Amino acid sequence: ELCGRNAGVGLARKIGFDRALERLDFGGAPPLLISLDADTLVRPDYLQAISSHFAQSSAGAAVIPFCHQLGASPAEQDAIDRYELYLRAHLLGLTLARSPYAFHTIGSAMACRAEAYARMGGMNRRQAGEDFYFLQQLAKTCGVGQLQGTLISPSARPSARTPFGTGPSVARHMAGDVTAVQFYPPQPFRVLGRWLELVESEWDSGGQRLLDEAERVCPHLAGFLDTEGFVVTWKKICDNHRHRHRRLKGFHDWFDGLKTTRLIHHLCAGPWPRVEPEAALPPLLDWAGLGAARGVAGQLQLLRIAQHGQAELLPNASETGQA
pTM of this prediction? Predict the structure, then answer.
């Protein structure tokens, strides 16, 4: 049962974390659990940066800055650059929309307090996406912070270990699949941002009024919310939480990272289909006030610096063969 056919990378992480949990010393400094893949490279300051972060942060979990390793060939380099740019463009959109789930979800780039791990119920057993669900639950129960001061380098190689994610996307792109890595246009993030702002400002309104206002923002948004049973759910949230802070917390626990992703997919399946990076990035960068950058390499470097704030740790374009 433990190692059935549906077991995957989530199970591997769970076994490691659960076994460690039994052996940690909770009598001194709060112990930490750190997730890392065997083919991921770290820097000498890796453990010290993690320790320093949790000594200062009130959040129970953290995501760690990353930059993929060099590809083994120009084709592999092109594929991993495009995929990492996709991840960073998605994060930028969520950040601009002011989503509380605006953080990277990369299994080799996360850490948490052992107490927080136990409190949120532990790692799931998913074949892929285990990091997404793990960090989402940590965000709901103890918060997720952005660590600084170090950089990890996940592998760039194609892989079939998981049904989706970095490895399969790189492999599909290298095989000539033009749909392997397509980007979300900025419009769905603008709709998401207006929806989150609406709930923040109208937190004491009824569910039907919020749904009517969502219709004015975007009919496709209202249709999605109606399908998700928002009006009934909002009434339950309001009945359980009278104060603004608790009510908004209840809303974001319901409208979580998964529902956010589903809304974006819904909007992309409707009025705003996915596009190439040449169409997606310029308006996103302009919205963020980051200025212009040429090509995938320039845009990737710009977002690495903007999202990690550690230009001195990052390779430049000439070092990665992207000049």
Answer: 0.90
